[in-house]
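seq as requested:
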Amino acid sequence: MNKQRLIPLIVATALFMENMDSTVIATSLPAIAADIGTSPLTLKLAITSYLLSLAVFIPASGWTADRFGARIVFAGAVAVFMLGSIGCALSSSVTDFVFARILQGLGGAMMTPVGRLVLLRSVDKSALVNAMAWVTVPALIGPVIGPPLGGFITTYFSWHWIFLINIPIGLLGIFLALKYIDPIKSEDPERFDLMGLVLAASASPASPSGCRSQASISCPGRSSRPSSGSAPSR
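struct tokens:
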């Protein structure tokens, strides 16, 4: 296969895996919660921790690719994502599961921007639009098919396979990335902005909390309104 077509497929497969895992456990939470001895509502932390981990570590991906090379970082991100998947499958408590999902989010945060950076630096400008189309479509399909796929696997097999199915896909992705992606890295990388990363990491969980606080300030006394069936006071 032409390398200009193969590299977008490698990146698209990794992005599909990462985006699908953001929603695949939504329909499997009751089965997972029953197996590890908690409630489905508590296990919502697994979804939140994954998405927050993605948001926190994405700002560090560009510098990491420039410093160590896009090929190594991309393959390493897939490997970290696989380790997180294995950790999720082997989890026996909420704490183990949440930490494994955070590790998955760390791998996913490196895969998405670094994969697009690989495209920009490896694909000819004339073929870049087609390459981006190959990458965008799987990334959009992943979150959509995640819930039904998770429900199907949980019903007819076991919820563990939701995560273990990532292992052969990830191994194939690492092999193809190391074989076909060029070792691209910056000769003079910029200094890492640690303070910026800390501020971004702090803002990620603080922003939703601030929005909820603002909503409660904008609508004071909502809980004290009389119900529709109560008689108005005279």
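The chain has a mean pLDDT of 77.
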